[in-house]
């Protein structure tokens, strides 16, 4: 049973614990306008949800790193003022976190969102107390990859790789976990497409939050 295998559970934030899509989309569209670019198709905007912003602006807008830094600064301008709270926990997530904590699991957040923003979001929604640490990227772009963030948590908390599980909704979450030797859960209720999640080769799959609860607590 998974309940007896994994003591340490690492969660992505956006698209896994909270539905932050409205605020993220608005902030991306604000940044694109400020950069003087034509509006992006909605399908392209949605590809920004989850992976690091620097790489997304480079990949989907043809920017170099310095231009992407400017775009990210515009994103943060909107997000810090309004977008951060255009967001809410998925229904059932606070209750699931409580059940996992009561079962003796150590919970962590590993997100591409800057740590300061992740802390603010989790505190705002009253879920910060469930986690041993909430860790994200650095504002200066020095640490942005999910694999690096997961690796820091493993090292800092001496997490056994065979007893730890990475849970997320995008391929970069799964790759970030598996690249550090962790088993992984791809969740189907977030922002990753079914095709993307199949391609990620996650160890487990949970289509809904109820499925995730059964998987982790059975």
From TrEMBL:
Entry's EC annotation: 3.1.3.5
Any keyword Heme? Answer: no
Cellular component GO terms, alphabetically?
Answer: cytosol
The yes or no answer to whether the keyword Nucleotide-binding is present is: no
What are the GO MF terms of this UniProt record?
5'-nucleotidase activity; protein tyrosine kinase activity
User: Which InterPro entries does this entry report, sorted A to Z?
Assistant: HAD-like_hydrolase_sf, HAD-like_sf, HAD_2, HAD_sf, PGP-like_dom2
Going by the UniProt record, its keywords in alphabetical order are:
Hydrolase
Q: Which Pfam families match?
A: HAD_2 (PF13419)
Protein known as: 5'-nucleotidase
What organism does this protein naturally occur in? bioreactor metagenome
